[in-house]
Amino acid sequence: MKNKKLSFIKQALFVGMVILTFSCNDQDKGIAVNETSAEDKPMNFVIIFADDMGYGDLGVYGHPTINTPNLDRMAFEGQKWTNFYVGASVCTPSRAALLTGRLPLRSGMASNVVRVLHPNSKNGLPKSEITIAEQLKKAGYSTGMVGKWHLGHKPESLPVNHGFDYYYGIPYSNDMDLTRKLTSYGDYWKLWTEEYKDLTPADFNVPMYRGTEIIERPVDQSTMTKRYTEETTKWIRDNREKPFFMYLAYNLPHVPLFASDESMGRSVRGLYGDVVEEIDDSVGQIMAMLEEEGLAENTMVIFTSDNGPWLPTEISGGSAGLLRNGKGSTWEGGFREPGIFWSPGNINPKVVMEMGTTMDLFTTFSSIAGVPVPDDRIIDGVDLSPVLFGEGKSPRKELFYYLGRDLFAARVGAYKAHMITQEVYVQGAKQVSHNPPLLFNVEEDPSERFNIANQYPEQIQKIMRVVELHKANMKAGPDLLGERGPENLVE
Ligand code: MG
Predict the structure, then answer these.
(1) Tens-place pLDDT, residues 233-254
(2) Ligand 1 centroid to 122 CA: how many Å?
(3) CATH T-level topology, domain 42-397
């Protein structure tokens, strides 16, 4: 922001000089008026969203055997956030939170259990929600989306009807439209372990869309990551004259895992490593293209993941590193993700240990693009610009961890209280209420190992006051994910 503000001041001085020159010498007009440097251009935004990648799956976040030199470079040249969160720990609500800047319960994209939209779902993200794409369109941005949408697959719910000019991708998860018959809940998990070697992309009859048309079915998932990257770089090159927003959501490393021929067998971590390293290559290609095209200086690239690792998929799932549990849960492993911000010359390179969330991107982008945040609804995002562009503090001091429509936990500062916990992806698991809540200091104890509720009752009281205020202001939307299809043994 420092640069942006400086550039604004320079621009104002420059305009003043032009006016003076114009009034002094009519013939000089127009000579300097077209002079604009790269930093005067509006900031472009690229969000790269991985699926089910855990906090511990990148080299720069400590993985010992997955090699991610491009994401590592992005982190060293930019900001690596170590307390970066999503709005929910499963796909659909997490994506709704990212795009709307709102907790998914508000938009109806949270259900009463760990549930997501499916190929037979009737609903999608309500039209009344404002996406980042719609927000940036107000400032004249071109908007493109490539990859996994998962906010409704009916034509009216697809990205091109939610503010995106362009869409290429699969409208839901890559493990849906399964053509094999499953007879039990346990059968699903076996797919990713002992039976895994038999699977081919034809076992998942997922469609590839361009706009609102299906162009391929089943998708050849082995080339999917490569093609997403190619579509993205082409779209950015084609749209470089206007400010742009690209939302690139890879379907991987969500199971089933497939990699291109070039990437198969490259990683000592096995197939999961092959898939993550191919995504890392893709990030490197996008960075190189932005640098070659002279766009890097006025583009911000953000890399993160929609939720933590899907642990029951065993060797086919990722790792939350030292964080507890994973996808679907309200432990840190479900909600805390890698969060890397890169914009050479604009972002102040450092490791950031303060809190930020994917919901904050809505507000941060709006602030940078000069678009007022809607005032007719509650927006949960805050503006992270003070941290990104300078030495300021993150305005985010609180986090709310929902499982479905229920508030399970809340973090205020270093302390996190679990009012409810529940085992996830375990058939018949029930909610367990805690009174007093379990309490952890997630700065001293990021793995949530030591319950300190008895030592710090005042911290529990402080969190509960924040929770009461939050609940009083929560206007929940309807449960739009409430259907369940015949194939959906696992949600
Ligand atoms: Mg996911």
Answers:
(1) 999 999 999 999 999 999 999 9
(2) 20
(3) Alkaline Phosphatase, subunit A (3.40.720)
